[in-house]
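STRUCTURE REQUEST FORM
Protein name: DUF4913 domain-containing protein
Source organism: Pseudarthrobacter enclensis
Requested output: structure tokens
Priority: standard
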Amino acid sequence: MTIDIGRFSEAPSSDTQGAGADDGEQQKPPELVYGSAEEFLHEQLLPTYVRDVDGRAAKWCTEWYFHPEAVCRVEALWRAWEHLRLDGATGMSVWFKDHADHHMSILLDPRGPFYKCDMQKHRDPEHLEPKKAPAGWFPDVRTIPS
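Status: completed
Returned output:
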């Protein structure tokens, strides 16, 4: 996975220049608090988003990293948190309302990505096996001249 987190990895633009921008220096983009989605999960997300995981109302897999959907959702939560933490007014409220509550509800749902697992044992998820559409239904847009 990539660690490109939007404005954290881009060269500073005019809107990230500080008061000292008059002397031609640009402000550095903010540094990340957490170095990975896993560190964020262990140090921030799970210690603050506490739920009773009983297997009936909520499920979790201790080997969550074997579930591609869980990895993507934890990564999304981390990226959003790193961005929204910079908004001192409503950033954390927005993060909980629009990101944590949404993704954690899906992750913890008994029919969610950990549906076959329990707190003691990981069981590989069954992946959907779709058929390929007939040729020509979904042309590769990268090959269409503009």
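Reviewer notes: Helices lie at 37-48, 68-84, 91-108. The chain is about 30% helix and 0% strand.
Form closed.
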